[in-house]
Design goal:
single chain, disordered N terminus, alpha+beta
Length: 724
């Protein structure tokens, strides 16, 4: 059990006096025990007058001896107990970071000499590391050159590029991707935009693109690779909260062994993204124009036909004949004018909803797996034309088939509906049938077509069919049982099958291990501190009483991924508190009322910060104070920060138990961290992030390696008992 701070020094001062008193007391007891009764009485009688007249002198002598001995013991404790402890703490910091301040070479001669030796060894280690760094820098010039080439290429690409590991975490993205996501995924209705990027290194792509779409595309790529496709890829279209359409191409990144691509070993994925909203809207306008033209042309043709029929009468007088001829001329002129206008307005050559060519057998196999998983009933796929290629949105189409199958299974009441998928040519198009045994189960089929099938876009079966420019109907045989939902779908053009030329040698733009973070996830508490991603944050507030009405006026945060502070991915947002800012607080943080006037309120800022910190561990200094403010705003903001939290105040106490002060300035001074931007939310967050990284090797040296170990150890600290 660790004694409270200062207990050792107090004991060191009291123990000499206590030891002397105990020694004298024991000596007197043993002496009295050795004498017989008469001698003992004689001795006590002789000592009684001395004790009465001179006892205070003896007590004062004992007090003086005890005080002198205590002072000597205190100096001995400070020099030979606390001194080595501080030296050990400073040496641990220096061992983990050669650039840290030198250890204090003070105290007794031996301790001073030991400090000088430690500093000499640290200097030699710094020199050795400088030599190694120079050699590594020289050896890495080619890698740096290739990396710069990659960065330049990524910056100049017209497309938005995002690279993922197998867990869907972002490893690389270019500026165009960042700009695209900022524009497309900005939360609407928040007034002034909140400074939070929807993507960032180490963050999950699933926060901005539906996981089901990514998983479906990955399954398709893996299936193509299993067939030996040289350049497998999958395309899909997703919608954003603001209604934008984004076309995504997903391609695998495969491992290289000895310069050759390893066919089946996928290490990550590349996403190429395009905003096709304008193309789609232009095509919709074109379709509307053509429909209007068709309707007006039909009316014009009808008028001309009627006029021509009247002109066929031989007894038609000249004025009437002239009038009907004028009708024909006017309608022809009007129709020509409308055709010219339509030609101008429909010059756009963009596509309809983007569809992807897919082998029909692959589509049926994927749909069969999905239906079996959703309904628990097997699906047969024996009646398929293996040579049919379709042009489809496979994810939406499979979701629609699964929805229809689930409704049939529900109507059957648990009995096996006998599902079967059939695929056959129908002229220039394709029939895709979802067949089942009982025709009565399809009685509500018409209603099911308009019901939402689920997912982010909330499409109906009818929406999916219209997206393909197809038709859907319920077909029953004239005799016997059974029925099927029949979909009329577009066939892929001949020659568009996904057989591509053999892959050429890939240019090696870089050779650093970009995909090292692809290991499977573990429970957070079991993961090493060095493996986790962190959001280090700080808040500035109107005061120190969150329950008494004080409010957040600024949130600043940065992220740590793979042991590196991402200075380019920061969150820095002023907040309108909706109340006055006391002058005493302004003197500390420098935020005046006019600086926050018109800024977003906390209800809009916290959801953006919550997204910024998603799937990371929160880190702060004396973070219980900040977390109390966040907890009180859960109802107003609609978000809860329930991820793990670490506090550098508590961690510093674990790393340096012998130190008296664990303020941010004191910790930074011991660890050699420069304090800048103090009492600004982002400035304090950046300093806290550097302190946190410096503490990790010190904690590891004390056996604290995992998140669970750090949380458990921090919970035992005195500072963990503080409440706000």
């Amino acid at each position: 059990m660790r004694l409270p701070r200062g207990t050792g020094a107090v004991l060191a001062m009291l123990l000499p006096g206590l030891a002397l008193a105990v020694w004298l007391g024991l000596g007197a007891v043993f002496l009295l025990m050795a004498l017989d009764g008469a001698a003992r009485s004689t001795l006590l009688g002789a000592l009684a007058p001395v004790a009465d007249s001179h006892g205070m002198v003896l007590v004062l002598w004992w007090v003086l001896f005890s005080a002198a001995s205590g002072l000597l013991a205190r100096r001995f404790y400070t020099a030979h107990v606390e001194g080595p402890g501080r030296l050990a703490d400073a040496a641990r910091v220096l061992a983990g970071d050669p650039s840290a301040p030198p250890v204090p070479a003070t105290g007794p001669a031996g301790l001073k000499a030991l400090g000088e030796v430690v500093n000499d060894l640290a200097a030699q280690r710094r020199a050795l590391q400088d030599d190694m760094a120079r050699l590594v820098a020289e050896a890495s010039r080619d890698v740096a050159f290739q990396r710069d080439q990659l960065a330049a290429l990524m910056a100049e690409l017209e497309q938005s590029v995002v690279v993922l590991n197998l867990e869907g975490r972002i490893l690389l993205y270019n500026a165009r991707a960042r700009t695209l996501f900022r524009r497309l995924f900005r939360t609407p209705g928040t007034g002034e935009s909140v400074s939070a990027d929807p993507i960032g290194l180490g963050r999950s792509i699933h926060t901005v693109i539906d996981r089901a779409l990514i998983d479906h595309a990955r399954e398709r790529v893996e299936r193509l690779m299993g067939r030996g496709e040289a350049r497998p890829s999958a395309r899909f279209v997703t919608t954003t909260p603001l209604g934008h359409l984004v076309r995504v191409l997903l391609a695998p990144v495969r491992a290289e062994a000895g310069g050759a691509v390893t066919g089946q070993q996928i290490t990550g994925f590349v996403l190429l993204l395009d905003d096709i909203t304008d193309e789609y809207e232009a095509r919709a306008r074109q379709d509307r124009t053509l429909i209007d033209l068709s309707e007006s042309a039909r009316a014009s043709l009808a008028a001309m036909q009627a006029a021509l029929d009247m002109l066929d009468y031989p007894d038609l007088d000249a004025p009437d004949r002239e009038r009907f001829q004028a009708v024909v001329r006017d309608e022809v002129t009007g129709l020509g004018t409308r055709l010219s206008l339509a030609a101008e307005s429909t010059s756009f050559t963009g596509a309809r909803w983007p569809l992807q060519d897919m082998l029909g057998a692959d589509l049926a196999a994927a749909a069969a797996r999905r239906i079996a998983a959703d309904t628990g009933h097997p699906v047969t796929t024996d009646d398929l034309d293996a040579d049919i290629w379709l042009s489809v949105d496979s994810f939406a189409l499979i979701s629609a088939l699964a929805f229809l199958a689930a409704r049939v299974a529900e109507a059957e009441g648990g009995a096996d509906p006998g599902f079967a998928l059939r695929l056959a040519r129908a002229g220039g198009r394709v029939h895709l049938d979802l067949a089942f045994a009982d025709a009565h189960a399809a009685a509500g089929g018409a209603g099911w077509q308009s019901a939402p099938i689920g997912g982010a876009a909330q499409l109906s079966v009818r929406d999916v069919v219209e997206r393909h420019g197809g038709e859907l109907w319920l077909e029953r045989p004239r005799t016997g049982l059974g029925a099927c939902f029949r979909l009329l779908l577009p066939a892929a053009s001949e020659g568009r099958a996904e057989t591509t030329a053999p892959a050429e040698s890939r240019p090696a733009f870089f050779d650093f291990d970009l995909f090292a973070a692809s290991a499977g996830s573990h429970a957070s508490d079991e993961r090493l501190l060095s493996e986790l991603a962190y959001t280090v944050f700080d808040t500035e507030t109107t005061g120190l009483d969150p329950a008494g009405g004080d409010e957040i006026i600024q949130i600043g945060a940065t992220r740590i991924v793979n042991g590196r502070i991402l200075g380019s991915e920061c969150f820095d947002q002023l907040v309108d508190p909706g109340r006055t800012i006391p002058e005493a607080g302004i003197a500390v943080h420098g935020i005046r009322p006019e600086m926050v006037r018109g800024k977003p309120r906390i209800g809009a800022v916290l959801p953006a910060f919550h997204a910024f910190a998603a799937e990371t561990v929160l880190v702060g200094h004396n973070v219980a104070f900040d977390m109390r403010f966040l907890a009180l705003k859960e109802e107003a903001s609609g978000v809860a920060f329930d991820q793990p939290v670490l506090d550098t105040l508590l961690l510093a106490g674990l790393a340096h138990p012998g130190e008296e002060s664990h303020s941010m300035e004191a910790i930074a001074g011991r660890l050699g961290v420069t304090v800048a931007g103090r009492h600004t939310a982002l400035g304090d967050a950046l300093v806290t992030a550097e302190i946190f990284l410096k503490l990790l090797p010190l904690l590891r040296a004390r056996g604290i390696r995992t998140l669970g170990e750090a949380r458990a150890a921090a919970a035992t600290s005195y500072y963990a008992k503080l409440k706000y």
